Amino acid sequence: MPCRLRGDTIFLMKTENRITLSNIFNIGLIVLVGLFALQNLNLMLTKLRFVEIADDLNASFLEMRLSEKNYFLYHDGMALTEITDKIDTTILAIDHAHKDIVNAIGENNLQALRTYLKNYAEVVDEIRKNTGADAELEAKFRTEGKKLREFSNTITKLERAGVNLIISNSKNILFVSFGVIVVTAVMVSHFVSQRIVRSLRKIENLAKTISQGNFSTIDGEIPPDEFGSLMTAINAMSQELRNREEELIQSKKLASLGILTAGVAHELTNPLNNISMIAQNFAEYHDILSEDIKRDLMNQVDGEAKRIGDIVRNLLDFSKPKEGNFMETDINETIKKALPLVQNMLDISNIDLKLSLQPETARVFVDEHQIQQVFVNLIVNAVQAMSSGGTLYISSCAGEKNDTAKVEIRDTGKGIPAEYLPHIFDPFFSTKGVSGTGLGLSVSYGIIKNHQGTIKVGSEVGVGTTFTIELPAYKRVMAESAAGA
User: Fold this and answer.
1) Higher pLDDT among residues 467 and 32, named by residue
2) Which fold is adopted by the domain 324-484?
3) pTM to 2 decimal places
């Protein structure tokens, strides 16, 4: 993937490459520690081999000294021969293990060992050639044997100490290296995982936002990796959804405008036709009509004009909801205030009212008059759906999180067909035929939305209809206002 060069090149890598690089880095550290441990192990083995050789040499040197003592004690010439044979055997052994000895103690110490052996051998040869006793030569014989033995012991002790030091250092270094590897691996893994998690979080947040209907995009720099490609695709999808939503909204607006226009035309046509017909009759029969008939015709015109006014006023209420006089209110009291306005309808229609108002229902922040209007509209609809009588259930309770007040108005009427339910809140849509304007539920819907609440409907033909209203609690509204201040 082409990209501009930067100092933090790892940021521009694909996720797969980041993970691969971190694994290579961790494996590299492990290999380095392994090589160091192998090198120390080889050095330790070399020194251990020399210690074994040195033990054999010390055994030979000890036998030489024993033969040396036998010579001085018993003046046995065979003891000198045994020493010479041991020296030759030792020189052959040193030649055979030359490489291991050099690796262990170095060339200088090996040469020093050979020198001590040579000096010792020369003294032995001089004593064998000298038939008489020579105190000075015998003293030199003792001295050279002692030097050879002490040098060998010293080198052996040093190498044993070296082996112990290597083991101790190796333990410490391996322990520290293990700690460094673990810490480095955790840091590198954390770094890589955080880059991945940050990208996933952005994608998750955008997905949640889109699911809520907010078609935003991921802002900021898009990483040039697999997640960057996914973010770009999601951004493109979100933009496409936004465009489609705008097209859908526009088409819905046009459809609603068509429904609204047709509804207005239909609703206004009847009273206008009536006015036109009354006016024609009034003009044609004016001279022969009595004053009472003329007055009655004008009253009919006035009634039709008021009907037109009511239609226009309801339409304005739906399109431009009035600013409400919001205050803290007990929703149960609002329900109780709405009931006297419809009590006569309930009695005449032989409808039994069942109230279940929970006292712990949350207090709300509403325009009580507007909410009362909604309850009256819904109760009137319920009464009209139960023309042969029935039962009206009105209940209130707190919402699931106790931050809303829920009100249910349920009737046992004829119900609403399923195909009508999606349009129940559309303006001028009515299931009552010519007897309804189709604005009551639309106005109620607008009022509830203006209160940041929700209104839902559920219905089954032959069983009844239930309207459920949820309004935000007063304490929630105040908390949101304080947060936004």
Assistant:
1) 467
2) Heat Shock Protein 90 (3.30.565)
3) 0.41
